[in-house]
C-alpha cells in the first residue's frame, strides 16, 4: 500500500511538473489592424508595469506609474485566478518624471518553483486585471536573450515608426515564446529605448501582453543614456551606484539557481567602481556554478564594434580584465545590431576555438555573444579573427537561448521569424572557480593604472555631458 501511494503521488507530482514546465505564455501574434487598435488604446496611458527579475529565483518585481493622488504601491498575489486568499505585497513610491504621476515599485518574494501565480497591482484607479505568472524549475532552466529592442521615439508628432516597431516587437516575442514556452526570463544587454526620454517608448515596449508573464533583466545602453527614463520604468535588484557613477550609471547583479549575472554599465568608463562591484557580487555568490556578464557594447563583438575605437581600446581594456579576473563563463553584449559569437578569448587572444555545434569541456577563456536587435538589423561586412560565428544576412532578426542543464550550458541562436537554428555550442563544466591564484593577483595589480585612466576619462566625460 505504501509503495502504491508513493508511486501514485510521484506520478501526480511529475504530471504537475510537466504541465508547468510546458505552460504557455499568452503571446498571440497580432494582425496589423489588431496591433494598431491596441496601440491606439494604450499608448497615452503610461501605466503599464515592467516585470523585472528579482534578486534571486524566488522573487520578481513590478514597477509602474500611477496617478499621484491615488497611488498605492501594492500588489496582490494568489494561486487562483479569482484571487481568493490573496497575499498583499507592499513597496515604495518615488517621484516620476512628471508631477501628475508617481512610480510604484513592489518586490514579490517567497515564490516557489514550478508554480502558477496570479497577480494584480493597484493602478490608482482600482485593481488592475489579473495576470498569470508561472515559475519554472529553479535548477535547470532556459533564458531568452535579445538586445537593442530600441523602441523608437515619436518623430515630429508622427508615431508611425514607433507603432511599426511595437508591432514587430509583439510578433517577435510571440514567435520566441510560442516556440520556447519553457523560458524563465529575458536578459537584454540594453538600448531598450531609442531616446531614453519619452514615456511612449516604454509604453510601446511594455505593450505585448506576454511581458506580464516574462521577467526581464535590462542593461543600460547608450541610447537609454540619452535620457533618464530608465530610472522611472525599471526596478533592477542589487543596484550598485559605486563611488563615482553619475546620472543613470549603475551596475547590478542577480542570481537565478546556479547562475550569477553581473550587469555592467558600459556607458560608464568608471573602472574602479566596475571592478569593486564585480568583487562584491562574486564574494556574495561564491557557490554559483556559472558567472555570466552582461554589457551593452560589443567587446569582442560582431559588426561595427570591430575597429571601433571606443569599444576596441577604451571598453575592452576596462572590462575584459575584470571578466578574466572573475572567470566569467560567458559575456553577453549588443549595440551593433549584428549577431555574432567569439571563440574562447583570453588576454586578447584566442585561447581555443569554439566552432558552431561543438561541445567544450572545462574550457579556458570567455565566450562573447554579440546579440542582434529586434529590428533594423545591419549588414555585417566586418570580419575579425575572434569571431567563431557571425550572421551575414541582412534584415534577419535572431534570438539566443541559454539552457542551464546539469553541468552543461547550451547556447543556441535562432532566426527570429521562424526559429531556424543558426548557431549553437555547449559548454560542460565540472570544475569550480579559483579566485585566488597568483596570476589573478598580478592581473588586479596591473589593472590599477587602468582604474586611474578610466576614472579620469569618466570625470572628463561627465564634464562634457554636463555642458552638452
Ligand atoms: Fe547601443
Quick structural overview:
Helix content is 26%, strand content 26%. The chain is built from eight helices and 25 strands.
Can you walk through the features of this model?
The chain is α+β, with helices and mostly antiparallel strands. The chain has 2 domains: 77 residues, Purple acid phosphatase-like, N-terminal (Immunoglobulin-like); 288 residues, Metallo-dependent phosphatases (Purple Acid Phosphatase, chain A, domain 2, 4-Layer Sandwich). It has 8 helices and 25 strands. A hairpin with a 2-residue loop joins strand 18 and strand 19. Helix 2 crosses helix 3 and helix 7 runs antiparallel to helix 8. It is globular, with a radius of gyration of 22 Å. The chain binds fe (ii) ion. The site of fe (ii) ion (FE2) has 6 residues, from loops.
Low-confidence stretches: 4-22
User: Looking at this structure, what is the CATH superfamily of the largest domain?
Assistant: Metallo-dependent phosphatases
Number of strands: 25
What separation lies between the terminal Cα atoms?
Answer: 78 Å
In spatial order, strands of the major sheet run 12-13-14-15-16-21-17-22
Cα Rg: 22 Å
Beta fraction? 25-35%
Small molecules bound in the structure, each named once: fe (ii) ion
What CATH architecture of the largest domain do you see? 4-Layer Sandwich
Task: Return the structural class.
Answer: alpha+beta
Described by the principal axes of the CA atoms, the overall outline is globular
Total individual domains: 2
The mean pLDDT is: 91
Helix content: 25-40%
CATH C-level of the largest domain: Alpha Beta
CATH fold name of the largest domain? Purple Acid Phosphatase, chain A, domain 2
**With helices defined by DSSP (H or I, 4 residues minimum), what is the helix count?**
8
Amino acid at each position: 500500500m505504501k509503495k502504491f501511494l508513493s508511486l501514485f503521488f510521484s506520478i501526480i507530482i511529475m504530471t504537475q511538473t510537466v504541465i508547468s514546465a510546458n505552460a504557455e505564455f499568452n503571446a498571440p501574434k497580432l494582425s496589423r489592424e489588431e496591433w494598431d487598435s491596441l496601440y491606439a488604446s494604450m499608448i497615452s496611458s503610461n501605466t503599464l508595469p515592467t516585470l523585472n527579475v528579482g534578486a534571486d529565483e524566488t522573487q520578481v518585481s513590478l514597477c509602474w506609474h500611477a496617478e499621484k493622488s491615488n497611488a498605492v504601491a501594492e500588489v496582490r498575489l494568489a494561486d487562483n485566478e479569482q484571487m481568493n486568499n490573496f497575499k498583499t505585497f507592499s513597496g515604495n513610491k518615488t517621484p516620476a518624471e512628471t508631477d501628475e504621476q508617481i512610480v510604484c515599485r513592489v518586490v514579490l518574494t517567497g515564490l516557489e518553483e514550478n508554480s502558477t501565480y496570479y497577480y494584480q497591482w493597484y493602478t490608482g484607479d482600482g485593481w488592475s486585471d489579473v495576470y498569470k505568472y508561472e515559475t519554472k524549475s529553479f535548477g535547470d532552466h532556459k533564458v531568452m536573450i535579445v538586445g537593442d529592442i530600441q523602441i523608437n521615439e515619436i518623430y515630429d508628432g508622427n508615431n508611425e515608426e514607433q507603432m511599426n516597431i511595437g508591432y514587430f516587437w509583439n510578433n517577435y516575442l510571440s514567435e520566441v515564446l510560442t516556440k520556447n514556452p519553457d523560458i524563465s526570463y529575458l536578459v537584454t544587454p540594453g538600448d531598450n529605448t531609442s531616446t531614453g526620454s519619452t514615456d511612449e517608448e516604454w509604453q510601446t515596449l511594455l505593450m505585448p501582453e506576454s511581458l506580464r508573464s516574462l521577467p526581464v533583466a535590462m542593461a543600460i545602453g547608450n541610447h537609454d543614456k540619452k535620457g533618464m527614463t530608465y530610472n522611472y520604468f525599471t526596478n533592477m535588484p542589487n543596484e550598485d551606484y559605486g563611488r563615482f557613477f553619475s546620472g543613470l550609471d549603475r551596475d547590478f547583479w542577480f542570481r537565478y539557481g546556479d547562475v550569477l549575472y553581473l550587469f555592467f554599465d558600459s556607458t560608464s568608463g568608471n573602472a574602479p567602481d566596475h571592478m569593486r562591484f564585480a568583487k562584491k557580487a562574486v564574494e556574495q555568490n561564491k557557490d554559483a556554478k556559472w558567472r555570466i556578464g552582461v554589457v551593452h557594447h560589443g567587446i569582442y563583438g560582431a559588426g561595427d564594434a570591430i575597429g571601433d575605437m571606443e569599444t576596441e581600446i577604451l571598453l575592452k581594456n576596462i572590462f575584459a580584465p575584470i571578466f578574466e579576473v572573475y572567470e566569467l563563463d560567458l559575456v553577453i553584449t549588443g549595440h551593433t545590431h549584428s549577431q555574432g559569437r567569439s571563440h574562447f578569448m583570453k588576454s586578447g587572444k584566442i585561447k581555443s576555438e569554439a566552432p558552431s555545434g561543438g561541445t567544450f569541456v572545462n574550457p579556458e577563456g570567455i565566450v562573447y555573444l554579440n546579440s542582434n536587435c529586434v529590428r533594423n538589423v545591419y549588414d555585417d561586412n566586418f570580419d575579425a579573427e575572434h569571431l567563431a560565428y557571425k550572421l551575414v544576412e541582412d534584415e534577419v532578426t535572431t534570438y539566443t537561448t541559454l539552457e542551464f542543464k546539469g553541468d552543461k550550458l547550451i547556447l543556441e541562436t535562432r532566426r527570429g521569424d521562424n526559429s531556424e537554428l543558426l548557431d549553437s555550442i555547449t559548454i560542460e563544466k565540472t570544475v569550480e572557480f579559483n579566485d585566488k591564484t597568483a596570476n589573478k593577483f598580478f592581473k588586479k595589480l596591473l589593472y590599477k593604472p587602468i582604474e586611474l585612466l578610466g576614472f579620469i576619462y569618466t570625470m572628463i566625460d561627465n564634464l562634457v555631458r554636463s555642458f552638452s
